[in-house]
């Protein structure tokens, strides 16, 4: 009897360890997604792409604009999706509630029962700019259309870090005057609706634009200690510093309750620009995954998990010549440009 009880206890302990490890693995994958760009004439079919995501345990995906074949392939995949609008549709979505209703009816309603929509991204990197004033009215109309259709899906917009007028040190992060005029009301909308701000964060461009001042090891998560001391906070990587600069800017516009979702980040493997090498891209993306999966947060918000979408799944040959074509982790034939351990 005692021996049987001991065996049962040992078996239970083994199963507990197994399930604990499984849970930890799942928790670790929750913060990382990958952008699915489609600007290529030689890319695999959406069904092949979604199979590739699943085979690499990638559980989040950002789709820049609605594509019926991609959305159909995502059905029952278990992959969480950020779905974007076309920037050229912003004016009609802002000025016509029926256009927003039609957009939701066409691009969300047929898929919502089988696709897990993380949020709708209304406009990508249009603030500041000629279309910036369309963003908030379009967000409101899309949100109203989603609500009327019975869908509880957050609505946001994606900005680049060019919206920052001040980014250094992180505690002094502030939006530019031009961006603040547009972002102030948007941040109020996000705060009142519990929606995040989507931000495209690229340490690569900060480094390649000023390699004499920005250290490569700091950009690649390879620094051995604190590189930037900001009051009581120490930064050992540029990614955290950039994210915290955005949080500081949000706080200055009464957006303390608004979360930042990093909707793009990555490193090019080629293209002829400073630092664009396969080794650097591999190092950056693998270290990024490790950093996010630690769930250690940033110096400003320690312990607060990061939600990050890597750019991008594939090299895309219809993008401008240079680094823009070379942010992919996979070639269009689905072989690896370099390995990322998700």
TrEMBL record:
GO BP annotations listed: carbohydrate metabolic process
Name this protein carries in UniProt: Glucan endo-1,3-beta-glucosidase GVI
GO molecular function: glucan endo-1,3-beta-D-glucosidase activity
Keywords from the UniProt entry: Glycosidase, Hydrolase, Signal
Similarity comment: family membership: Belongs to the glycosyl hydrolase 17 family.
InterPro entries (alphabetical): GH, Glyco_hydro_17, Glyco_hydro_17_plant
Protein origin, superkingdom: Eukaryota
Ranges that cross the membrane: none
A Pfam match: Glyco_hydro_17
Signal peptide: 1-23
